[in-house]
Design goal:
alpha/beta; Leucine-rich repeat, LRR (right-handed beta-alpha superhelix); 8-stranded parallel beta sheet; two-stranded parallel sheet; 8 helices; 10% strand; repeat
C-alpha cells in the first residue's frame, strides 16, 4: 500500500514538473527593451530568447541590426514599434524561421525590397501599419506561406495588387488614399470571392474620384468596361519606376558620402557648362549685330526718299519753267553741259504737240475727209 502511494505521489510530482516545463516553453524567454533609446539591436541577449520587444527606440534595422538578429533563431515574436526604420532590406529576417508575429508599425518605411520577408515561412501576423508605404509588389508576400493577418492600415497606398496569400484570413486596409478606378477592380473581386475578411470595411473607403468617396473599396460600383480589364499597365510602369527610384535611394543611403561628393561635382559641372553656353551665345549675338547693323543702316539710307507731293512738284517745275532766265546764271556756259542739263530738266515732261487724242474719232471717216 505504501509503495502504491509513493508511486502515485511520484507520478503526480512528475506531471507537475512536466506541466511547468511545457508552460515555460510556451511562454519562452521574454526580453523587454522598450524606451531604452537604443540605436542598435543588442547583440548580448540570450540566444534562446523567443519574445523580443524593442519598441520606442531609435533602431533603423540596418546591416548591423540584421546581423544581430541572425543569432536569435528561436524568436517567435519581434516588436519594433515606433523606431526609425525606413527601408526593409533583403533577408532582413532570413534566419528567423520560427517567427510568428512581426510588428513594425509606426515607423517611416517607404521601401520594402522584394526579398525582405524571405525565410519567414511560419509567420502568421504581419503588422506594417502607420508607415509611408506607397506601393507593394505582390511578390514580396510569396515567402509568407502561413500568414493569416496582414495589417496595412494608415499608409499611402492607392493601389494594391492581389497578394499571393492562400491562408490569409483577415486584412486591414483602412486609412489609405484608395483610388477606386478600374485598376482596383481585381482587388475588389478578390475581397468578394475569397474567404478573406476586410476589417473595418465601412471606413475603408475611396479617396478618388470624388463621386465615389462614400463607397467602400469592397462595394464600389464599377462600369461594365472595367469588368473586362486588367489593372492599368500605366500603374505597373509607375511601380517599376518607383522601384528603380527606391533602389537608387537605398544605394544612396549606403554610400552617402561618395554620392554626395559626386552630386556636388556634377552640379558644379552643369552650372559651368550652362555658363559657357550662355556666354558663347551672347558673344555670337553681339558679333552678328556688329556686322549686320552697318549694312542695315546703309540699306535704310539708300531707301530714304519719297515721292514728291503735288505742291512740291509744282514748285519744282515752276522753278525751271517760270524763270527761264535763271539758266543764264548757270556757270560754265559750255553747250554740251547746257544740253545735258536741259535734257535732265525736261526728262520728266511729256511731249505735247497741242493736239488731244480722241479715241472716239473714226479713223475711216478721217481718211475720207482728207
Amino acid at each position: 500500500m505504501k509503495i502504491t502511494c509513493i508511486m502515485i505521489l511520484f507520478w503526480f510530482l512528475s506531471m507537475l514538473l512536466l506541466s511547468d516545463k511545457s508552460q515555460t516553453s510556451k511562454t519562452g524567454i521574454i526580453y523587454n527593451f522598450t524606451e531604452k533609446n537604443y540605436s542598435l539591436i543588442p547583440a548580448d541577449i540570450n540566444e534562446d530568447v523567443q519574445v523580443l520587444d524593442l519598441s520606442y527606440n531609435q533602431i533603423t534595422l540596418n546591416v548591423t541590426d540584421i546581423r544581430a538578429l541572425q543569432m536569435y533563431f528561436l524568436l517567435t515574436e519581434l516588436y519594433l514599434i515606433q523606431n526609425n526604420v525606413i527601408i526593409l532590406l533583403n533577408d532582413s529576417f532570413g534566419n528567423l524561421s520560427n517567427l510568428q508575429i512581426l510588428n513594425i508599425c509606426r515607423n517611416s518605411i517607404y521601401i520594402i525590397q522584394r526579398d525582405a520577408f524571405v525565410g519567414l515561412s511560419k509567420l502568421k501576423q504581419l503588422y506594417l501599419c502607420q508607415n509611408k508605404i506607397l506601393q507593394l509588389n505582390a511578390d514580396i508576400f510569396v515567402p509568407l506561406k502561413n500568414l493569416k493577418l496582414l495589417n496595412l492600415q494608415g499608409n499611402l497606398i492607392s493601389y494594391l495588387e492581389v497578394p499571393l496569400l492562400f491562408h490569409l484570413e483577415s486584412i486591414i486596409l483602412y486609412g489609405n488614399p484608395w483610388n477606386c478606378s478600374c485598376s482596383l477592380f481585381n482587388l475588389q473581386n478578390w475581397l468578394n470571392t475569397s474567404n478573406v475578411i476586410l476589417e473595418n470595411e465601412s471606413i475603408t473607403t475611396c479617396s478618388f474620384p470624388d463621386m465615389l468617396k462614400c463607397y467602400s473599396i469592397k462595394t464600389v460600383p464599377y462600369e461594365a468596361e472595367c469588368h473586362s480589364k486588367f489593372p492599368s499597365p500605366i500603374t505597373e510602369d509607375l511601380y517599376i519606376h518607383f522601384q528603380s527610384i527606391s533602389n537608387w535611394t537605398f544605394n544612396n543611403s549606403l554610400n552617402n558620402l561618395t554620392i554626395n561628393s559626386e552630386h556636388e561635382s556634377l552640379g558644379k559641372s552643369w552650372a559651368f557648362l550652362i555658363g559657357v553656353v550662355v556666354t558663347v551665345l551672347m558673344t555670337s549675338l553681339l558679333i552678328f549685330i556688329a556686322i549686320k547693323c552697318p549694312i542695315l543702316y546703309n540699306l535704310l539710307l539708300s531707301y530714304n526718299h519719297h515721292r514728291l507731293e503735288e505742291h512740291e512738284a509744282e514748285t519744282y517745275e515752276d522753278g525751271f519753267t517760270g524763270n527761264p532766265s535763271s539758266l543764264s546764271h548757270i556757270p560754265y556756259t559750255n553747250s554740251e553741259d547746257t544740253t545735258v542739263v536741259f535734257e535732265q530738266l525736261h526728262s520728266f515732261v511729256v511731249d505735247d504737240d497741242g493736239f488731244i487724242e480722241d479715241k472716239y474719232i473714226d479713223t475711216h471717216e478721217l481718211c475720207e475727209e482728207n
